[in-house]
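tool=predict chain=A
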Amino acid sequence: MLAVAIVRFLAALSLAALVFGFALGHWLAPRSREVVRVVARREPGRGTEVAWIAGALVAALWPIGVLLAPAYAYGWPGLPDFPYSPGIQVGGWVVSLCGGLLFFASARALGRHMTPAIQLGEGHRLVQEGPYRYIRHPVYTAIVSGAIGESVAYLSPVLASLTLVLAGLAAYRARLEEDLLGSPEAFGEVYAQYRARTGRFLPRVRSKP
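tool=predict ok
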């Protein structure tokens, strides 16, 4: 297992990347005070939206726990050492970093359509640029893969359990979004064609006929 000092250093790098990414995203975001009227929405089950947002925040801010309380946020409850664990942990950190980059690219492609609510605003267009050219829900892929990477990097069974919950919520929310975007009130057949040539969370190897 990696030494605590190294893991805390990696956690500090993760937090620095997170702060830089949000600052850059805020700077690049289009400035608009226009209030967009919601024309359609799908309501998630009671409490699931709060659970999704809270879980994603806990996973993203887990490095703070590693910095302040490594005895609990790193390898708790105690895990036995295993072969090649340092390399595997570094690999997990790289996966987490890739998840952060994917999140940034997805948010930039979405622009003003980026929202935790499952809704369709007036003038909404079907985004098919950036990561959306290959997968329909890259934001969910980014959040879950980031949590997976951190679970491995910090050898945290607690964070791994949270990741499983996030994966289930992502699948649930993705179904609601696809039901909304594929409805006649949204994009209908256009979305069906888009869905046939893209994957839900990972790129599709071959388009459906």
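The beta strands are 38-41, 119-121. The chain has eight helices and two strands.
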